[in-house]
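Incident log, entry 3
Record: C-X-C motif chemokine (93 residues)
Problem: checksum mismatch between cached and fresh output.
Input:
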Amino acid sequence: MSIKGLAVVLTVLICAAIIQGFPMLQRGRCLCIGPGVKAVRVADIAKASIMYPSYNCDNLEVIITLKRNKGQRCLNPRSKQASLIIKFKEGIF
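Fresh output:
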């Protein structure tokens, strides 16, 4: 094997070793971007969903589905309204 061939093989092996250390599938596929809103009018809430931290997302997410096809809102899980919803959903109330 020539010196050029050996250099190419060595370069490929080093690159493979470096790439091996980086995760190929990044975590962080959270549904909520940013901290979310602090509160939503209770009359507008159709459904509340709690997404606990998992492999896909490290964050606790509280997702509110609004009535009359107004979409969904992410509620800040540290807000007072979100903590009440979490307690209610877990049956701690």
